[in-house]
Specification:
Elements: E1 2-8, E2 25-29, H1 35-41, E3 49-54, E4 57-59, E5 70-75, E6 89-92, H2 97-105, E7 109-112, H3 118-128, E8 131-134, H4 137-140, E9 148-150, H5 156-166, E10 186-189, H6 191-194, H7 200-205, E11 209-212, E12 218-220, H8 223-258
Parallel strand pairs: 1-5, 6-7, 6-8, 8-9
Antiparallel strand pairs: 1-2, 3-4, 3-5, 10-11, 11-12
Helix pairs in contact: 2-5, 5-8
Length: about 260
């Protein structure tokens, strides 16, 4: 039997069993085990790990842990954001429909269906280089998943803030560019072209419309538009505040680690 010592930093601790959260702990194991396998056996998906130190030397997820190793596991920070080179695109699991609506509202390419199977989500993420957003830790532990994020909160607005601050997306928000129903791009359309889809009062009081290029849904700036604007502004301001606080906290953490 081999023994190694682990210590998890920051919000990774909340993913551990309660007895392991507040101090270094010893983990016993047999045979050759990678850091990925041992860390995930404790409930922490590899997508949430920024880097790993073994007695001040950095090791990767494939490192074979040795007897007596002392491993510190750090969360992803603003220096180590893992995202596709092609740009930010998402795929969401079946339980994140409200988050999908919010991300589309903000202009992000977001695939979602309420009947995706786990293997479909993993395949879409892998083949299309989409960031997989899920609350399912086991799904993120699949070896094929390179781009993923464990969504922590149950609140859609808090989930959205987490995603925006993690991937530094405040500057990339372009509201009302996508259909919140199907993810298609919206295009301005002449009123006469869509009048047959509108109620009489809508025709009377509104003149500017957009049409989804995929599903044909019509959008205009009614009372719902003002509510969405307020919600978007709240998400943006909260994201900016939390991102600043998180970066200040990580800077303090880096200084203490160096000292």
């Amino acid at each position: 039997m081999k023994h190694s010592h682990f210590f998890f930093i920051g919000d990774l601790r909340q993913l551990l069993p309660p007895s392991c959260r507040d101090q270094p702990f010893e983990l016993a194991f047999r045979g050759q085990q990678s850091t990925k396998h041992l860390i995930e056996s404790l409930g922490v998906p590899h997508t949430e790990i920024g880097y790993i130190e073994n007695q001040a030397s950095q090791v990767n997820l494939n490192y074979l842990v040795k007897n007596g190793d002392q491993l510190k596991v750090y969360p992803i920070d603003h220096h180590r954001i893992i995202k596709p080179a092609e740009g930010i695109r998402f795929v969401l699991d079946n339980h994140l429909g409200k988050l999908a609506t919010l991300l589309r509202m903000l202009g992000f390419d977001t695939q979602y269906r309420n009947d995706f199977q786990d293997h479909e989500l993993a395949e879409i993420s892998t083949k299309e280089n989409r960031i997989l957003l899920t609350r399912d830790r086991r799904l993120l532990m699949r070896n094929a998943i390179l781009f993923g994020c464990l969504v922590r909160s149950k609140s859609p607005d808090e989930q959205c803030v987490q995603v925006i601050q993690r991937y530094d997306l405040v500057g990339e928000i372009k509201p009302f560019q996508r259909c919140i129903r199907c993810n298609g791009l919206l295009q301005p359309v002449d009123k006469a072209q869509v009048s047959h889809q509108l109620q009489p009062l809508t025709i009377q009081y509104f003149d500017e419309f957009c049409l989804c290029s995929h599903c044909g849904q019509v959008y205009w700036q009614g009372s719902h538009y003002l509510r969405m604007q307020k919600r978007i502004e709240h998400v943006i301001q909260t994201s900016k505040k939390e991102q600043t606080e998180n970066r200040d906290g990580l800077l303090e953490q880096d200084v203490s680690r160096i000292s």
